[in-house]
From TrEMBL, chains A, B:
Species for this entry: Planomicrobium soli
InterPro entries per record: Metal_resp_DNA-bind_regulator, Tscrpt_reg_PadR_N, WH-like_DNA-bd_sf, WH_DNA-bd_sf
Domain Transcription regulator PadR N-terminal span(s) in chain numbering: 18-86
Name used for this protein in its record: PadR family transcriptional regulator
Length: 102, 102
DNA sequence: TTTTCAATATCGCCCTTCGATATTAATACT
DNA sequence: AGTATTAATATCGAAGGGCGATATTGAAAA
């Protein structure tokens, strides 16, 4: 399957998407899963949640538990360090795009 | 170190760079190492060579041994499948860039 | 033959990804 | 009250990959 090949290429993209959305407004896991799916990234919960945890322990995201309609959700927001990383990613994504666009 | 964090984000970018350059003209390992370094990607030979091997066994690159000034180099060119993957990557890189640019 | 050098390959450790399954906590139903 | 249901999150073991350090290759120079 070339799915495996594509995933290898796009896992970093997924991390960047997460940072981007977490900057716009706090996100939670299953919403992010749906958002990524709409962008054409197929990824399961067993992959996403460990990624969120590692991004938190890497200091890119902070977690806050909220009670929404009786359900507890873990909302993740971007940290200052996360924003710095995102800026780096924006630069690199632009360079990559410029270089391969034609 | 946040180097580890950045590497996680950019490994896919590196794969795409490799595909792009292998399409322009055949590449070999140590040249690619230098090229990536100039683009700001720090990566060692112990990482790059296994990547080239896996991209070959995934059918994205083909290898051809050439004798250059008495030295044997392994030149990698892009395959048809590699070109298809690269097109996918271009689309996704453009979407990513569009989404996070501001 | 020995040294030197550029280029490539391999080693073992550790971490991550993955699909599948389990857990949690609150509501709806009978 | 007890059970089923549901959304959201967490965890499991297997498999694979990244990493730095080290080893190997092959040819030319000394």
């Amino acid at each position: 399957m070339e799915d495996k090949v594509l995933r290898k290429l796009f896992l970093g993209f997924i991390h960047i998407h997460i940072l981007h959305h977490a900057k716009e407004s706090p996100i939670f896991g299953s919403w992010m899963l749906e958002e990524l799916r709409e962008h054409g990234y197929s990824i399961g919960p067993g992959t996403l949640y460990p990624i969120l945890h590692s991004m938190e322990s890497d200091g890119l995201l902070t977690r806050e538990d909220r009670n929404v309609e009786g359900k507890i959700r873990k909302y993740y927001s971007i940290t200052e360090k996360g924003e710095q990383i995102l800026v780096e990613a924006q630069k690199k994504a632009y360079e990559l795009f410029k270089e391969i666009k034609d």
